[in-house]
Amino acid sequence: MINSDPILIIDDEVQIRRLLEITLSANGYKISEATTGKEGLTLAATGHPALIILDLGLPDADGLEIIKKLREWYQKPIIILSVRNSEDDIIKALDNGANDYLTKPFRTGELLARIRVAIRQSQVAPDEPILEFGSISIDLTNHTARRKNELIKLTSTEFALLALLAKNEGRVLTHQYILKEVWGMGYTEQTQYLRVFVAQLRKKIEDNPARPKLLNTESGIGYRFGY
Amino acid sequence: MNSFEDNRPNPDELLVSLINEEEKSKRGKLKIFFGMCAGVGKTYTMLEVARAEKLKGSDIVIGIVETHKRKETSELVEGMEIVPRKKYEYKSTTVEEMDLDAIIARKPQIVLVDELAHTNAPGSRHTKRYQDVQEILEHGINVYTTLNVQHLESRSETVAQITGIIIRETLPDEIFENADEVEVIDLTPDELLQRLSEGKVYTPERSKEAIENFFRKGNITALREMALRIVADRVDKQLHDYMQQKRIKGPWKSGLHLLVAVGPSPYSGKLLRWAKTLSYSMGGDIQAIHVETLHKLTPKESGQLHKNMNLARQLGIKIRVVTNYDVVKGIVDFAQKENVTHIMVGKPRVRNLLSMFRLGNFVNKLIRFSGNIDVYILGSDESAKDRFKDRVSIPSFTSNIRQYLTISILVALTAGASYLIKDLIGYQVVSFVLLFLVSILAIFYGTGPILLAATLSALIWNYFFIPPQFTLHIDKPLDVLMFVMFFIIALLNGILTSRVRLQEKNTRVREARTHALYQLTRELSMATGIQEVSKIAVRYIHKYFNLECAIILKNDLNKLDDHVKHETNIKFSENELSIAAWVFRHSSKAGKYTDTLPSTIYTFYPLTGINENMGIIAVEHTHIFTQGEEQFWEAFISQISGKFEREYLRSAARKAYKLTESEKLYKTLFNSISHELRIPVATILGASDSLLSQAFPEETRTKLYSEISIASIRLNRLIENLLNMSRLESGRITPRLDWCDVHDLVHKVFETLSQELQPFQPSIVIPTDMPLVYIDYGLVEQVLHNLVLNATQNAPAGSNIRIKFFYDNGFLTIQVMDRGKGFPEAELNSVFNKFYRGKDATAGGTGLGLSIVKGFVEAHQGSVIAKNRSNGGAIFTIKIPVKISEMDSLKKHDD
After folding, report:
1. What 8-state DSSP symbol labels residue B463?
2. Which of B294, B395, B569, B670 has the most beta carbons within 10 angstroms of its beta carbon?
3. Residue B154, SS3 per DSSP
4. CATH for B528-640?
5. What is the pLDDT of residue B38?
6. What pLDDT score was predicted for residue B253?
């Protein structure tokens, strides 16, 4: 693996820890484990983890608090792995700085894919001018996007939306976040704008807009860009 | 016939005696130490008995005992437990009274309560001590008490007559009659006088005074006779009761039913007491009747009537109020209906000719109509003011001066007009004109004015018209006849019309009340829920009684709960709430205009249902109810109480139903879930066991792995369903509405179910102009997910599953169609029930999926129906009312 930094698992369930350890080790990741929030914070500070997998329901602390504390200094991806599956919980976790969210029960394949995307994303240099996703390339400096080398006609809002999603590839962006970033503070409740523009954007960038592969919906939460 | 019946115990009476026995066994027992007057040693004997009981080990305390500083008595009190008295501040002095609550809280076996007839200090819960005693008895505590004969309501007047001392502290005879035990403390007059002179009763100075005033030998003898006679009567009655209870055939005295008529006369009191005594000695039952006519009682009469009614109740005489324009008719009708054998009425004092006429009329009528019922007429008391009036049947002169004046003017005007045309029509016709006028006037005016009109017109006709004119003399015999006839006809006409009017008015009042009751009953019957019933009750009481009222109902713990108060702004104080609680517990009214706690501003009535009390209603009375009003009010309240009770029963039934439902649900859940849980768990355990214990070839391993995976998915789905179900059951589902693109929805569902959809040919129909809809994405996704999953489980592989969306006129419609077997027609309505499983459903379902669909759709105020398709298969149609967004304007906004 490129990265020798470990993945930190903070979870009080021994079976989950064991399952993750087996799966992740087999895929070449190094592992460090914590069973409480406190221990997790210490290990995060001392062990330089490349990524943290965090359970929200820890015995000693509220998961949301841990995300907040981590985010005061920790820049690398945090993936939430929790039994809490209400949209509110997920949105709160994401708004507090988590990169991704998976609910238990989960499929290990899915988790591995998310980890891969998150790590890759964290290693991409932030000022990369051109982003590529399969047949789509996005030129951030010139505000243009191409599909199979053909220029896609995009309105300025559509481009802003596409650029925002693409820059955060693999990460779930909540509706509120996207609305705030693209339309501005006063528009965070205007989800209908977002729905309309996502639908339009899909028609322009997806091979089959009815079965989108790039611009994915996260039910009730937001969108995630990338395969 | 009568004598035959007399020989058999009446079943009703038997029942009553049995019920009495039963009620008595729960109550404490009342023992009365009964004497002819003060000083015979009642308190002393009571204390002696108490000490003896105490020695036997009874838990006995003194509630209140007045020793009157008598040495012998005081000695007996020593060593007994005494419940401390309660102090009341009253007009800057402190009054001590028995502490009722403390006694009830102490709950001894026996409590001694001296002087049963005592009147409590203002501010106490009850006005009278016997009411305190009743309450103590209700708590199952036995009471020993003392009583003198002069305090019995029925005897107080006689005692007053004998001794010349008016007795203020009286108690209802009923209390005495219902006492479990009466011990007579008897002393010969000489012995008593001896004791008195020895200073054993009063201090020497007071003794002298007392002997001269009250304790004269003649008085004492009379009182003694009275006391002994009462006890003898009681013994007699007990024997009677005993025989009845033991079904002993014997000399049934009775079959006698006495009826006493009560009016607003102070004299009625005496009549009642006398009737009560008579009923004792005759051994018959007794009831009282008041006939309410249209004559409006003066406030004074009203008050007197109220007093008389209360007296009747205190004497233990049931009182009935009937309405009739004629007193005699009212009494006789009632008497015949109730098989009364004796009617007792008072004889009014004859003061003048008119009253003699009235009396004769009244008595004659009564005797004439009463048939074979005996009529007793009791002589009047000179001291009592004669206020007896035979109402309505004799005209009452209550019209005012203005009416008389108007009448006179009208007669004069008509006469004047007739005078002008008298030559044209002749003087005889004038009489008809005048007669006509009198008849017309009778429609509008009372009897008095009509009499005047008749007389006046007769005189005018005579004076101005009948020749010779301007004299009252009449020449022709024919004219004399006409004049007499004119006068009589005018008079009769007037009186008859006026009576018809009164009767009509009477009927109107009754009709209005009946109508009000009918309206109330009708509205109540349509009302649902306690809240609505309260609202109607308050509205009707305001409308028909013009009273503000507050209703307090009981809570689930069967306690009166101030929070269950309805439809009122009245705020009750602690004290008032405790009265309310008392009323609720004892099912009797209290507060203003009652005997219990009359010093408050509200009157509290119990809302008594058939089986239990529902709560209380409090009103702020502006005046004492008349008897008619009181009856009307009781009818009202009983309707309302009945309805409250029905509502309570209904909600109780509902709760019980819910409980059995949830029990049923639990069972089904348990059966269904345990099966559904075990199968996948068994699969996972089995497969993993095999994998761990043996080295299988690659292909087998893969198969086992996939079995584990499938079982896990199934398990997970079950958990999801259960969680959703419990969310639904808890009623905590509130849709989080947001704008949603239905394409997203379908895509998401197809993605999650891609495995299951593999063998099918799904098709999706969404119109190109489908707007965004405002729904809960998560819930609708689950709905669609469950329906599509259901389709994949029921349709044959390779068939088409079709999903169709459209928006029309405020509704989002989602249809999911398959080509499975569909549902049996009879079961179409039950497919959404919890745990419904089709007869040949494939394994691996709990019957929860579709009920979750229904729940989630209904959370959106939508509906879902299942039907069979004409060419086979099932079709589910969901309709959800939705908002849609204006997509076009949005696009323009950006471009």
Report:
1. I
2. B294
3. helix
4. 3.30.450.40
5. 81
6. 42
Distance CA B717, CA B849 (A): 10
ipTM of this complex: 0.82
* CB contact A28 to B (< 8 Å): no
Position B142, amino acid = N
- Chain-centre distance for alpha carbon B793: 60
CATH architecture classification, B733-889? 2-Layer Sandwich (3.30)
How many domains in chain A?
2
Tokens 């996260």, residue located: A218
Residue B328 has pLDDT above 80, yes or no: yes
| Residue A2, domain member (yes or no) | no
Return the CATH superfamily for domain B257-378. Answer: HUPs (3.40.50.620)
Strands (E), chain A: 7-10, 31-34, 51-54, 78-82, 100-103, 130-133, 136-139, 144-147, 150-151, 172-174, 215-218, 222-225
> Of the candidates B423, B425, B424, B494, which has an alpha carbon nearest to the alpha carbon of residue B458?
B494
CATH of the domain at A152: 1.10.10.10
Task: Give the whole-angstrom CA distance, residue B120 versus residue B296.
Answer: 35
Which chain B residue has the Cα nearest residue A191? B739
The number of C-beta contacts closer than 8 angstroms across A and B is 52
Average pLDDT over residues A19-30: 90
Of A194, A196, A198, the CB nearest to B887: A196
Show the domain range for A34: 7-123
Question: pLDDT confidence of B350, banded at 50, 70, 90?
Answer: low
Q: What is the 3-state secondary structure (H, E, C) of B351-399?
A: CCHHHHHHHHHHHHHHHHHCCCCEEEEECCCCCCCCCCCCCCCCCCCCC
* B712 and A CB contact within 8 Å: yes
For B768-816, how does the pLDDT look when each residue is reduced to its tens digit (9 = 90+)?
888 889 998 888 998 999 999 989 888 888 899 999 999 988 899 999 9
Answer whether B739 sits within 8 Å of A191, measured CB to CB. yes
**pLDDT score, position B24:** 56
Give the Cα separation of A46 and A26 in Å (integer): 24
Confidence category of residue A66, pLDDT binned at 50, 70, 90: very high
Nearest chain A alpha carbon to B746: A210
